[in-house]
Each structure stands twice: as C-alpha cells, then as structure tokens.
Amino acid sequence: MDLDVRDLELLDALAGGGTLQQAADRLYVSQPALSQRLLRMEERLGTAVFDRVGRRLVPNQVGVRLLPRASRILADLAAAEREVREVARSGDRHIRLSTQCSTTVSWLTPVMREMRKACPDSVIRMVSNADDDLSDAVLAQVVDVAVLTKMTPAAEQVRLTHLMDDEMLAVVASEHRWAARKYVTARDFATENLILYDSYDQSRPNALPLPIPPGARPDQVTIVPMLTELVVELVAAGEGVGVLPSWVIAPYLARGEVATVRMGQRGETRAWYAATRVDDERPHVLDFVGRLRAHFRDDPVD
User: What is the β-pairing status of strands 258-263 and 158-173?
Assistant: First the structure.
C-alpha cells in the first residue's frame, strides 16, 4: 500500500480545506515537516491530491474521493482500538447487542440485569444499527447478539435461537368502525391511513416489510418516528389506524382510547430470534442467549 496511518492523519487534518500550518498545529508537527510528508505522499500516489489556492489547500477531484475514506478508516481504527482496550480491561466477556425494534428494551432489560448479577464481569453494550441488516452485522462481527424478526439471505449463515412469537394487531380508535369487529381483512385497509414506525419506511435500506395482510393496499401510509406513544396518540385522535405487536400495545389498552383487532381469522404472527455467529462458542454469549430464551419461555409476551 502507498498510504500509511500518518498519511491518513494528514488527509483528515486537511479535509476542511485549511492551510498546512493549521494541519501541522492539529498534528503537533512543524509546517515544513508536514509539507515534505504531503509531497512524498503525492509522489507515491503519482498525482496531486490538493490544489494550492494561495496558502490554502483545496481538495481536487482525487482529494474529494480520498479524504472521506481516510476519515472513515481513521474512525474505524479508533473504534477498533476502543474495543481492544475494552476486552483487555474486562476480558473477552463483552457482548455487543443490537435489536431490530427499539421497543424491545422493556423485555431486554430484565435479562440484562440477570446477566450482570450472574456474571458481574460481563459487559453488555447496545449497538445501534438502524439501517443495517442485523444478520450481516453479526457475520461482520460488529454485533455479537442480534434480536431480530426480519429474515434476509444473510440469516441463513447465522445461528438462530427462537425466542418467541408475537401477534401483530390492528390498533384503532375506540369509536372506529373496526373496534367492534373480531378481525379485519386485507380489503378493509383500502380506505385507511396506515400509521407505522419509520423502520417500515420502504425507501430506507433494509426496511421491514409492511406488517399487514398479504394483498392489503392502504389508501395512505404515514411514517412516524419509532415512538409508540406517538402512534397511539395519532390513532386515538382518529388520524388513522396502526399496527403494533400485542405486547407493545397491551399497556395502552387500559386507557380505553384505543382498541385492537385481529388481522385475518387466524391472526398475523411473527417469530423473534437471537442471532449469533455459528462459530461463536464463548460461554458468556451462549449464557446470555439462554437467558433470553428462558425469559420468554417463563414469561411469554404473545
């Protein structure tokens, strides 16, 4: 390779289009030394990376392509160093956990507390992967355990431990015409505004499939942030209908402002799994997945 970490640091320091002196100050080196480093790097690359505009260095077409990558590589290296230090400090007992639905925290936290009591030296860290395929994240070793329901091709390459099945229910205002019905069909959605979390936004990478019966064509779909309270308030105000898991909507039914209706005679259910790498046999990871499975077996939410 023609670039080393010092070159990446130089590129990152100059990414804002400043002067060599400003970059030298940030890197705690002299301006002449940094100027020589830049010249040597450009010689190795066989092209200039910056246009000289007075005292300023402005990225040219090569620089525009190279600088963002340099910044990302440095950020990845810094993250890797933090993880190595974390492992060195607490041993290889860390668990990076990600979940497909942020509302799962209500049933994850009891398991996390149990794990910390049983293994005080374990470290459980939530990892955000809003637009990523969680199975891919597990395979790439970005995540150790992923709680997911969406099956993708990558899911065939991970170890899946079944946790539970939950039923997806239509949520309507208490006075809505569906409220007195035993179930609704795909055809019933044709006149409704469907209010969903933004994780169902079909324009997003790795969006969840719409949680409605096959063939359903809502008149309109309104996407909102992943806040259950917001979905419930909009539904209660008559702005549309929602679709939520049975365990998520249960605490809100006591108010009497909303009602739930089964979708189809048999209902719409989905399975939740804990995904891990097939070669990850670390005892603390297997212990955590076992505790997750036991939690749902002893206290089912469906």
Answer: antiparallel
- Rounded to whole angstroms, how far apart are CA atoms 274 and 162? 7
- Token representation of residue 301: 């939410």
- Residue 89: per-residue pLDDT: 60
Cα separation of 147 and 169, whole Å? Answer: 21
Q: How many CB atoms lie within 10 A of CB 162?
A: 11
Instruction: With H, G, I as helix, E, B as strand and everything else as coil, classify residue 177.
Output: coil
- Written as six digits, the tokens of 219 are 């008149």
Is residue 217 within 8 A of residue 190, CB to CB? The reply is yes
Strands 258-263 and 183-184, by their bridges, are parallel
pLDDT in tens, 62-78: 888 888 888 888 888 88
Spatial separation of the C-alpha atoms in residues 132 and 199, rounded to whole Å? 11
In sequence order, the 6+-apart residues with CB closer than 8 A to the CB of 31 are: 20, 21, 24
Q: 29-33, 125-129, 294-298: which has the highest mean pLDDT?
A: 29-33
Torsion, Cα of 193, 194, 199, 204 (10° steps): -50
Burial of 19 (0-12, 13-18, 19+ CB in 10 A): middle
Looking only at the bridges linking them, the beta strands covering 241-245 and 193-197 are parallel
Q: What is the C-alpha to C-alpha distance for residues 92 and 141, in angstroms, rounded to an integer?
A: 14
Q: Vertex 213, ends 212 and 216: CA angle to 5°?
A: 85
Tokens coding 160: 């899946």
Burial level of 173, CB count in 10 A (0-12/13-18/19+)?
A: buried
pLDDT digits (tens, 9 = 90+) for 80-117: 787 677 666 655 678 889 887 665 566 778 888 888 88
Tokens 């997945």 appear where? 289
What is the C-alpha separation between 51 and 73, in angstroms, rounded? 23
Count Cα atoms within 13 angstroms, Cβ side, for 176: 28
The pLDDT of residue 151 is 78
Amino acid at 153: P
